[in-house]
Amino acid sequence: MSLARLVDVHTHVYLPRYAALLRSRTTLPRIITSSREGKPDDRLFILDRDTGRPVGSQYWDRDEKLKFMDRHGIDMSVVSSANPWLDFLPASEAQTLATQLNEDLEQYCADSPSLSPSLKRLYGFGLLPLVPEISTAALLEAIEQISKLSHLKGIIMGTRGLGKGLDSEDLDPVWAALEKSGLVVFLHPHYGVDVEAWGEKDNGHVLPLALGFPFETTIATTRLILAGVFDRFPSLRLLLAHSGGALPQLSSRLASCIEHDPVVASRLKHDARWYLGKLYFDAVAYGPEELGFVSDVISRSQRYEAGGSVPTNTAVDRALGSRRMLFGTDHPFFPPLQPTEKWKSVVENLQAIDAVTGWGQVEKDGVRGANALSLFNLV
Amino acid sequence: MSLARLVDVHTHVYLPRYAALLRSRTTLPRIITSSREGKPDDRLFILDRDTGRPVGSQYWDRDEKLKFMDRHGIDMSVVSSANPWLDFLPASEAQTLATQLNEDLEQYCADSPSLSPSLKRLYGFGLLPLVPEISTAALLEAIEQISKLSHLKGIIMGTRGLGKGLDSEDLDPVWAALEKSGLVVFLHPHYGVDVEAWGEKDNGHVLPLALGFPFETTIATTRLILAGVFDRFPSLRLLLAHSGGALPQLSSRLASCIEHDPVVASRLKHDARWYLGKLYFDAVAYGPEELGFVSDVISRSQRYEAGGSVPTNTAVDRALGSRRMLFGTDHPFFPPLQPTEKWKSVVENLQAIDAVTGWGQVEKDGVRGANALSLFNLV
């Protein structure tokens, strides 16, 4: 039997305290509580033009998370609050709630079953009260709080920052503190792009989720690169949701556009592609070719180090990139439309890892769990 | 010596008649004419929040196009009007101008030097007056006009259609006529996504060009897939600018989102990934890993045919996908910031083709030119 662990780094929760808030609200985001044939029939509305989706105990009940993990052979999950986090709250409320939710999540993990004498089955990403009008001091306090909660290994973050996006210099003290703390920053989308882009047809949630979400992550990360954040904070550990969205496929175009634009051509220390090798990518892309390509793009980043010694025509070693990729499920989102023993969305991501050409057992075991244990200092 | 041809399928022109229109305008799109030290110092403004870029004879002078081709060893170019085409014109004006510009472009090509007894060095993509309020009859007339102009081999098209996007049923007669005509439809972006997404920092044109353009192409193509256009018009030949933008990398996520959404789950004939194998992709992606990945995504489409016989765990034959990929330069856009003999943007795309792992000489020659000759029936 293999000792390899399966670790889910992209799995969400609405903690009971947060779910209660969603139930109490009359505008987005909210849970609308009703009943059908005597059973609760709650629906969750979080997106612009959202038509809602069924929401139930799988979103807040820890036992449901553990059952889901057992059913899919997941040994450990690093759980994060689901979007839209605290984005919609006034600063003081966001600050109070962040503190409480971080304590709640610590408890959620600390009381979870043990995986081994030294490991729990649940760890977590905390929350910062990252909203307009918040003080830098409050953000630094939250980082300190999370650093002291031993089961929280990072923070999950949206893309709005203090309202001007993540490329605002206002966030430099936050990046500095996060870099120093060693906490992993899980960058996750919520807003997509302007809904006008989706047109008038009813395509359900497909366009905002399949395209808008990855676009948002791509834009946010690109703006971080262009703002020099990775030049100033080179040890920041940023984990990108949904395998970095479209960033890998657009990264050579990005590098070319930068090099051909007088405004930015000489601003950065390295070719844009170099920065992709400093990032971490979840493996939530649903296809083996996508994962292999992301792995290539990470591997090739060495070629693009300013003054580096790797020629740009050197073939990539795909194995190398796998070390920065980590399995995830996006649970409890994307449930099967018809009940099945295992969720198709999970099975697809596992099969994708298994089918990547050029990855051996070591690379696959790494992506499935060993990379996460290492990233979160759990070995 | 190799008989392999280098053919540029992504190369633009503002025909003199169109450039004169841009000069006459007081709102976007426009050319602002001024002079610096006695020399003309014209600048082109086409994008929202555009800060302009130098524009000169390389945009309208055919001799400049041919000189550029000679300098880069390009045997043949299939030239298209640059964005934003006729999008901003009232219907009657768009219709008149489309007819004239199609005649102009035919002349531009027909009078060009010969490459061989049966081939010219220049061919073209015509224009449809695809604007709100235009009649279907006018669009069908334009398709008929272009079909009869022997050097026009396709049309270039933006993403707005008649104002509601390309997924509107209003366009079904147009798709039907295009399918019947055999004209290649070159889908090209102009609008990107809402500028709010780019934030407040001055990053030049990098974000709208590097990300906005490919996002727009991705959205338009996805909307076409979701609207069943490729199910209804299976022989339509659509060529995607910039290697399909982000569509390849998001295609498995798209397939998964479709399968998990009750609104669309059973709407299409095939898994979303199948449709990518029906498309053509220019090779304007600036990196070998990107091109190899696009090739994989085309190759794998066979696996995703409804009721097909190729198991989903079959490794892809990367060579297969190369047949639907075609070299392009995006000239006269992306000139080098400092004068150089060869343009870096062109050299990068050629080097990328040459460096794709898993492509042999046949595949590389195909992407460089043979695929274009075949697609445009020039063999």
Automatic annotation (TrEMBL), chains A, B:
Q: What is this protein called?
A: Amidohydrolase 2
Lyase found in the keyword field: yes
- Amidohydrolase-related domain spans which residues? 7-378
Keywords (alphabetical) are: Decarboxylase, Lyase
Any GO MF annotation of the entry:
carboxy-lyase activity
Q: Which GO terms describe its biological process?
A: secondary metabolic process
Membership in a protein family: Belongs to the metallo-dependent hydrolases superfamily.
Which PANTHER family does UniProt cross-reference here? 2-AMINO-3-CARBOXYLMUCONATE-6-SEMIALDEHYDE DECARBOXYLASE (PTHR21240), ISO-OROTATE DECARBOXYLASE (EUROFUNG) (PTHR21240:SF28)
What is any one of the record's Gene Ontology cellular component terms?
cytosol
Organism, scientific name: Mycena albidolilacea
